[in-house]
Amino acid sequence: MTQTLEPRAMGQDLVRRDGPAKVHGTAIYADETPVENPLYCRVVQSTIARGRVRSVDTTEASALDGVITVLTPGTAERLASTDDAELAVLQSDDVGFRGQIVAAVVAETFEIAREAANLVRVEYDAVDHDTRLSADRHDLYAPEKVNAGYPTDTDVGNMEDAMALAPVTLEQTYTTPMQHNNPMEPHATTALWDPARGDGSGPGLILWDSTQGVHPMRATVRGVLGLEADQVRVVCPFVGGGFGSKGTPHANVVMAAMAARAVPGRPVRLVLTRQQMFSLAGYRTPTIQRMQLAAERDGTLRGIAIDVVEQTSRIKEFAEQTGVPTRKMYAAANRRSTHRLAALDVPVPSWMRAPGECPGMFGPEVAMDELAHELDLDPVELRIRNEPELDPETGKPFSSRNLVACLREGAERFGWAGRDLTPRARLEDGWWVGTGVAASVYPTMRQAQSTAAVRFDGGRYIARIGAADLGTGAWTVLPQIAADALGVPVEDVDVLIGDTDFPVASVAGGSSGTATWGSALVEAAREFRDKFGRGAQDGDEVEAGVRPNPDAGSYTMSAYGAQFAEVCVHAYTGEVRVPRLYGVFAAGRILNPRLARSQLLGGMTMGLGMALHEQSVLDPRFGHVVNHDLAEYHVPANADVADLQAHWIDEHDPHVNAMGSKGVGEIGIVGTAAAIVNAAWHATGVRVRDLPVTLDRFLT
């Protein structure tokens, strides 16, 4: 059992420590890093989806006043490693997708770089490309594993027999579209080759980058460039949003480093435009989910299966774990989950908030709603009747699982009692009104590697760890954790983050940041307290890392939630509105209610966008996203969010970590879209199985 902390600072509703700096405009972001005499880099992107670069004419661009250099596949440096094709920038003439970097201009100003990039003339030898995803392709294949290392397929019992013998069955296909997680701060890098960080063979590299993990960024970049770890410093005190897109390095970072090495002694800034981010910064892959449910007439599931088809890039594989949450959500003796990929001539997909769980809970939770209607059973009750006692996949006990409590409390708060099961039964002022529910799950993870240092200096405790704050609140919650572990007031503690000169930290991803960094801080703080007690002197310091959790292999650890939505659909226009959206979550100890509520509401709002607005429209003729900006890629605005509430139940889980906390960054988005779709069906009687839910779905 993990030794948990008694809360003092943890649980306090403290305001963000970084709030004043952000409001006053003094928080420094990657593109604002104060450097002397910077240059500016602008990339040139391919206009074909597959083929090769025949020639690059830089004559006009190079002749423009203020242009320092133009990099092409023929003039760029050779990288030490090209194992990752996404990061092998300008290393060959091959073109793997439309929008790939095929040249780059470095100039004295951003405006000159932009103009010069438009003057670079690229000729191509194009070949036929393929960007169409379908479930009946002949070339679908099973990856060796899916994201985070999960097995590609699972098969328990006999699903075919379950479907053949069960008195009630359901078989439907659900789809989610390509979606782009474009944070407000674009992907940006300021790069400088610094002799002070060199090893005698050449200068070292400093990257001021907008990243979710400075140490993972360093590990990747140094391998690509052939540097030692101490030759590379990555700095990122503030991030203007990420949602997973900044969790792994993309081509822009390598490009910035290459551009800076081409102009010795001067820093180079590279900021992707909004349009460029739609091809160079990852996205959520579209999914096709074939669901099968086999049940008794009382709603007891005898079988559940999900077969997923999704796309990856031909140049680099990414397999989203869409089918994984189905494996352990509900009790059923017969279960199957499969993943199949289509390798297409498209940009590389990557992490987007709650990868796997977010799209992967859409099909199952809508299918559960359809089954409830078939059985004339309340959809809340159907989920409760299929609550497992043990993890259906592993047979392990849950460290804590309060999904039923979330469903019941959510139903009470929402006013679910007495809900008419009949669809299209409530018309108010020209609007059909309905309600829906869906369940949420997200694994509770802690990364293996993070270290923290605690030092006493000038009457204050100063901790250092290379963590990242995406706006999620690390600047605030980490001092709360450290203060409790030290047994001192939180006002006496500072935690410094966002720099590889600080002890190593894991990426801010998988809702694991606070659990991982907090565990490292607890270990360092406890050792400091045991060694120095209350008599610490200036300069006293201790460094310690995350210790293995002895309970990790004995329990299944996850956060859970229940989403309730009220949806109105106009009877004549099909316009869809969501006047109420409630969520109740079980996420362990809530370390800071203000920050947690912000994250949960943010996730639910993003789920609302997934349900009603978000869809990256790919033109298969040319292989690019046509709505590639924030004017045409629609996301929720304040007018779309009326009564939005996030609540949680008190949950004590001594097994997850010393804080007793679970992640809250991603659980809020999971299940939201399904709840809205289920409510839209209840309002209209029209079942939408393909996101997003647009008004044309109801104009029949």
Structural write-up:
With 700 residues, the protein is an alpha+beta fold. The protein folds into 3 domains: 19-28 and 447-545, Aldehyde oxidase/xanthine dehydrogenase, molybdopterin binding domain (Aldehyde Oxidoreductase, domain 4); 33-128 and 184-241 and 247-280, Aldehyde oxidase/xanthine dehydrogenase, a/b hammerhead (Aldehyde Oxidoreductase, domain 3), CATH 3.90.1170; 145-180 and 284-445 and 554-698, Aldehyde Oxidoreductase, domain 4, CATH 3.30.365.10. Helix content is 24%, strand content 25%. The protein is built from 16 helices and 28 strands. The strands form 7 sheets. A 7-stranded mixed beta sheet has the order 3-5-1-14-11-12-13, with helices on both faces. The chain has a 5-stranded mixed beta sheet with strand order 9-17-16-15-10, sandwiched between helices. Strands 18-19-24-25-28 form a 5-stranded mixed beta sheet, sandwiched between helices. α10 (362-375) runs parallel beside α16 (672-684) and α13 runs parallel beside α14 (513-532). The protein is globular and about 75 Å long. The protein starts with 18 loop residues before the first helix and ends in a 16-residue tail after the last helix. The mean pLDDT is 97.
